[in-house]
Design brief:
This is 3-dehydro-L-gulonate 2-dehydrogenase. By secondary structure, the protein is an alpha+beta fold. It is built from twelve helices and 14 strands.
Length: 349
């Protein structure tokens, strides 16, 4: 069952929960803002749903609340950092900022981060770069949670990839896992007692299904585009580990320290006006988006939009009517905010 809770109430409750888990007030504030914003934008799977698991990982020592990014090396427009298993959100925000600083100087900036933890909603950092006027590209590698095409067991991460276009009339932001549905999204549908809109994986008998619980149980999520998503996932894994000189998905599998613990992340910022004026670039973007949005819908009454265009409307509704949260997850977060750190995370990846 879903509830709508006032934005500030959600923010303060999450902040207190994170402070109770050992975060400083400053870091708890930053993380609470990101978690709350994710829910407000309609991304529950990587907003509040992740808070109980985050607290659990801090307690287990998988996440070091005191860990900070440390510069390992740099050359021109590229820098490499060790995240020291610090908080994924604060590590990633730091690296996105560094990528933009490098792009201001060089036209393009690339930061490779190793030994970090789950960054929660990957789109957060692409949105940040686009709203600052840069094209942003980022991705992460994860432990194996998806079968390679043709396999019946997890052999690769679903390695989310994000790209954001800095359109002044509204950024176009793609934030996608290499699986048809991320585990977090499966959890959202399961908790709501709903089937998936489209088949998202296989059950234990190998049947394609829209039952999120059956897919979670089998761990056979469906790669996006079948063999194409599978191939893209392994390529992103290798590229991230190569660029950051850090862990591959196999290294994380062997360590067995939970979702994304010890992962690599890449952040690229690009100055969109290196080879064209703002007027001509923005004009091109607006014409292209308008043409795409004018596409004839397959079903009468449907509205065609580019990725990210509906996010701002969802955000505004959340600010006015309250942030949508799952009742069970909300009860867990409230319990943690009151000092009950034994609350178990029932939300899926």
């Amino acid at each position: 069952m879903s509830l709508r809770i006032p934005y500030e109430t959600v923010l303060e409750t999450v902040k207190q929960a994170l402070m109770n888990s050992g975060l400083t007030e400053e870091k708890a504030q930053i993380c609470a803002e990101i978690h709350t914003q994710s829910n407000a934008d309609g991304v529950e799977s990587h907003g509040l749903n992740r808070v109980p698991r985050f607290v659990d990982y801090v307690q287990k020592g998988f996440i070091n609340p005191k860990g900070e990014p440390e510069l390992v090396g740099g050359k021109g427009a590229v820098e490499n950092y060790d995240g020291h298993l610090g908080i994924g959100i604060t590590n990633a925000l730091f690296c996105a900022d560094r990528a933009m600083a490098l792009a201001k100087e060089h036209g393009i900036g690339c930061v490779a981060l190793k030994n970090s933890t789950h960054w929660m909603r990957g789109g957060t950092y692409a949105w940040k770069m686009a709203e600052a006027g840069f094209m942003g590209i980022s991705w992460i590698n994860t432990e194996s949670c998806m079968p390679l095409w043709g396999s019946d067991e997890p052999g690769v991460g679903n390695n989310p990839f994000c790209i954001a276009i800095p359109r002044e009339d509204g950024p176009i932001v793609l934030d996608m896992a290499m699986s048809q549905y991320a585990y977090g999204k499966l959890g959202v549908y399961r908790l709501a007692g709903k089937k998936l809109p489209f088949p998202g994986g296989f059950d234990k008998e190998g049947n394609l299904t829209d039952d999120p619980g059956a897919i979670e149980e089998s761990r056979r999520i469906l790669p996006t585009g079948y063999w194409k998503g599978s191939g893209m996932a392994i390529a992103l894994d290798l590229a991230a580990a190569l660029m950051a000189n850090g862990n591959s998905g196999l290294d994380m599998d062997e360590a067995g320290n939970g979702s994304c613990t010890g992962c690599c992340q890449i952040f690229i910022a690009y100055d969109p006006y290196l080879f064209g004026s703002k007027e001509e670039i923005q004009g091109m973007l607006n014409r292209r988006v308008a043409a795409a949005d004018a596409s004839h819908p397959a079903k009468e009454g449907d509205v065609i939009t580019c990725p990210g265009e509906r996010t701002r409307a969802t955000r505004e509704r959340s600010k006015k009517e309250g942030v949508q949260v799952d009742e069970t997850i909300w009860q867990q977060v409230v319990a943690i905010s009151k000092g009950d750190l034994n609350t178990k995370d029932i939300a899926s990846k």
